[in-house]
Amino acid sequence: MKQLYCLALFALLFSCKDDRETTSENIESIKTDTLNLKETSHATLKDTFSSDLRPNEKLKIEKAYSDIVEFVAFDDNGDYPIFTIQKNKKIISFYSDFDDASTLKRGDILEVKWKIDSVYIAGEGEKLDFGEWLINAKKIKEGNVSLFLKKYKKPIKFTSEKDDYTDGFKDYLYTQVTYYLANSKNELVKNAIKNPDADLSYSIEEKDRDGRSYYLLGISNDFEHHTNIIQWLYLDNENGNLYEYDLPNDKLVEFR
């Protein structure tokens, strides 16, 4: 590898000598090209890698690993689809070739096979990097959201003064609401879910608080033509963190 790097560097310098006049600008350009080549070579020469999935291990590139994890989310809007999971209270995102994870719900327990492999970061001159890549994911146990949706068959409707939310964003908010309903310890929420005559719904607003922007979700229990807000939720517009609103103390409590 060292010999290949030296040959590549020699070829680069020789080419620059033939095609360019020796100016300060060209010298700086040659230095930059050489540095980029050196960085790529160093990345390739790296023997071991680390991951929060296995924090105490030295991982080999392209070697397959298997772990039991909790599903969090799937996002296919970027250059690479991102498959996000949780293990040992740490959030880890895989790069993936998956094009659909619609059958999975947050909290489902999965057996995943994955590896460390190369990735090119857009916006940084296609810089070479390495990260966790998902090979395969198999659901082995249903989580609370899946179990909740099996028991609660009624549609959970929403209301909003705005009508320009995309379908994808409305699905995202619905995912947040169902995750809360399935895991809430709030007795009002738990009793509403158990009541066969009640209908759950939620309102959507946008609200600023303490210099941050949130989506305000009002969980309601609709019963006999009366709507009663039983819990306010704040969804951070920047980092996606979900909070319960503690009314007596006027503060936000992160919901996990």
Architecture overview:
This protein has 256 residues and is of the alpha+beta class. It folds into two domains: 65-142, OB fold (Dihydrolipoamide Acetyltransferase, E2P) (Beta Barrel); 145-254. The protein is 29% helix and 38% strand. The strands form two sheets. Strands 6-7-8-9-10-11 form a six-stranded mixed beta sheet. Strand 8 and strand 9 (226-236) form a beta hairpin. The longest helix has 22 residues, at 24-45.
Write the layout of secondary structure elements.
Layout: H1 2-19, H2 24-45, E1 65-75, E2 82-87, E3 90-95, E4 109-121, E5 127-141, H3 144-151, E6 157-160, H4 167-183, H5 187-194, E7 199-209, E8 212-223, E9 226-236, E10 242-246, E11 251-254
Parallel strand pairs: 6-7
Antiparallel strand pairs: 1-2, 1-4, 2-3, 4-5, 7-8, 8-9, 9-10, 10-11
Helix pairs in contact: 1-2, 3-4
List low-pLDDT spans: 1-22, 30-43
Pairing-aware structural class of the strands and helices?
alpha+beta
Give the N-to-C terminal Cα separation: 47 Å
- The global form is elongated
Largest sheet strand order: 6-7-8-9-10-11
Number of helices: 5
Let me know the largest β-sheet.
6 strands, mixed
Oligomeric state of this protein: single chain
Helices and strands, in order, run as: HHEEEEEHEHHEEEEE
The tally of structural domains comes to: 2
> How many β-strand stretches?
11
The helicity comes to: 25-40%
Which range does the strand content fall in?
A: 35-45%
Overall radius of gyration: 25 Å
